[in-house]
UniProtKB/TrEMBL annotation:
Limits of the Peptidase C39 domain: 66-197
GO cellular component, one term: membrane
Gene3D superfamilies assigned to the protein according to its UniProt record, in alphabetical order: Cysteine proteinases
Organism: Acinetobacter guerrae
Record InterPro entries: Peptidase_C39
Example GO BP: proteolysis
Name used for this protein in its record: Peptidase
């Protein structure tokens, strides 16, 4: 028994000394694949270190996430100030500023902040801002991020418009993160065509809210319908044959009076179908 223990200890010592074991940087995993997929072999692996990060980091990249269910206004304003103006505010600091310079009694009554409250706080910061009404084309032509109110899923909500590209509107949502809407869908939920802009000299503008490749990883709205309604590519009888082959067979009398085998025992194919609720 002593010999086995000693031998195991020596093997472990020489193994650790023989290999150069380096600590992996945070967020690094070893990715392994077969060099030639046609010839699977344990001796022909390609291995390299790959850096990964949680998807939630991209989801809320550049966004101040709202801490309370009623604080989308303060979180959206903080996102715009930090990502476009270049401040380093927390949502709590913005909330304190909105309560101080905004209409305090009305804020408490409605449990939310208004665009007027935002304007007063931004003015206190020494910046010019304003709320406007315009068409969708006006929003795009501005070429800068803006706070826009939307009515979505039964709630009124503030998000930050980031950019428009190829028929989609990209926004920074304090509750959901970086998301996008189809152009027509956005027009439907955009509340009163209102937008809130902060005037910042071009040389001072930050680009934390600029559109990035990761923002455009979305599924087209029509994808599901396009493939769900695609025409059958094979003859119907062939598809029926495949379905019968994959089904359960039950033998019993043929109850179809118009059938040539009426009353006789025949094979019945029991198929299972998806049923929409």
């Amino acid at each position: 028994m002593l010999e086995i223990t000693l031998g195991s200890a020596l093997i472990y010592y020489f193994a650790t000394q023989a290999f150069d074991i380096k600590e992996k940087p945070p967020g690094t995993v070893n990715y392994t694949e077969v060099l030639d997929s046609r010839e699977p072999s344990f001796t022909r692996f390609h291995r390299e270190q790959v850096n990964i990060k949680p998807a939630v980091e991209d989801q809320f990249r550049g966004i101040v996430r709202q801490a309370y269910d009623y604080s989308c206004g303060s979180a959206a304003l903080t996102t715009l100030l930090n990502g476009y103006v270049g401040t380093r505010l927390t949502e709590q600091q913005t909330m304190n500023g909105l309560l101080r310079f905004g209409e305090y009694n009305r804020i408490v009554e409605r449990r939310s902040f208004s665009l007027l409250d935002m304007k007063r706080f931004v003015t206190a910061l020494g910046l010019e801002s304003g709320g406007y009404r315009g068409e969708f084309s006006d929003l795009i032509k501005q070429g800068q991020p803006a706070i826009v109110p939307i009515s979505y899923a039964g709630f009124k909500h503030f998000v930050v418009y980031k950019a428009y590209k190829n028929g989609r509107v990209y926004v920074a949502d304090p509750a959901l993160g970086n998301i996008s809407f189809d152009q027509e869908r956005f027009k439907q939920i955009w509340e009163n065509n209102t937008l809130f802009l902060i005037n910042v000299p071009e040389a001072q503008r930050q680009n934390l809210l600029a559109l990035q490749d990761s923002d455009m990883r979305h599924v087209e709205d029509a994808t599901v319908n396009k493939y769900a309604l695609v025409d059958i590519q094979y003859p119907t009888f062939y598809m029926e044959k495949i379905a019968d082959k994959a089904s359960t067979v039950r033998r019993g009398p043929d109850l179809n009076k118009e059938s040539d085998t009426y009353g006789q025992n025949v094979n019945t194919f029991m198929r299972l179908y998806y049923k929409r609720k």
